[in-house]
């Protein structure tokens, strides 16, 4: 039962990142609130307030209709403008930075809530307008509901002003990279705090579980897998790395015991395949997105070395945190026995993938090369490194950078500076 609850909560959490989630929820709340107010009006709440607190009631039918009609027309205009601004934001971010940052922008909860507030007020005003009787007197007029519509519209205007401010901040590349960095940093900190140093059994002769569908492997329900391993008394090794495309029929996991079809289906159901890329699920996406922003900034069409330098600064700190993490994640059960091994990209491969892209597009710029040398030298002298192979990988990338820079830079002074920094 816990496994199904965990899977349901995980699905709801992923659904929250969709741009239509909060607007849909708040639209439903607005609809329900309109019917609640219609019920209260039928019980005479406006009549009671008109007699005891008339300032809280709009008691003129024409005024109420004019207000609600104006609110509905104005809200539609504000919503069209807001949705247009979101589309412009996504288009500019995709063109100027990287298409991979779009899922993070779309999942911005503040913008979703603002759009939801618009829908909430719009539906509430529509149903309140419909409830006004054409020949009713002031005691039949939903005056209190109209007053609440005025308050809701005021909130919409405040939300619209905040939306303009927020959208202008979101499009700035420094804020985009800072958001990506902070999210990846939190994710890495969680993984580092939860990691354990334990020897996992040799799985070369274990039973292989094959994937039943194709897709990008983005996340894993670890709690459900732990429950399966404890209830079935088995150990598992997750073969694919997060973010990789898994084809149907390829190895998905290994088990130390032979499993029946029902248990295999349970294990496969803990894998989440999706094309959306959220740093909250996979910190490796932060390295990829920041690297692509730096590469795009160094393209001839944009030519923005300052952005590339900022991106390298963020990468430097992320790599420094990554040095404190093991290459594989070992998960133990309640008795501290290793039952689950999750493979991830090795530090050496991660550093090579980032440096290969930066060396290819930035090796002709001595300022960027100098910044990359500073990054690698900083990583080489860090304390608290989990494996000595990490330092070896950094030294290898220093040699690769020196070779590329020597072949691209023609000025003797630039070459002398770079060689001096490396040594």
Keywords:
16 helices, 64% helix, five-stranded mixed sheet, 423 residues, flat, 8% strand, alpha+beta, 2 domains
Task: Write up this protein.
The structure is a single chain. This protein is α+β, with helices and mostly antiparallel strands and 423 residues long. It has two domains: 12-171, no CATH class; 182-192 and 282-330 and 346-422. The chain has 16 helices and eight strands. The protein has helices spanning 2-15, 21-42, 45-52, 61-96, 102-106, 109-130, 143-170, 173-194, 222-232, 261-269, 284-297, 305-322, 347-362, 366-380, 388-408, 412-422, and strands at 207-210, 215-220, 236-238, 245-246, 251-255, 271-273, 328-332, 338-343. It has a five-stranded mixed β-sheet with strand order 1-5-3-8-7, with helices on one face. Strands 4-2-6 form a three-stranded antiparallel β-sheet. A hairpin with a 5-residue loop joins strand 7 and strand 8. Helix 14 packs parallel to helix 16 (412-422).
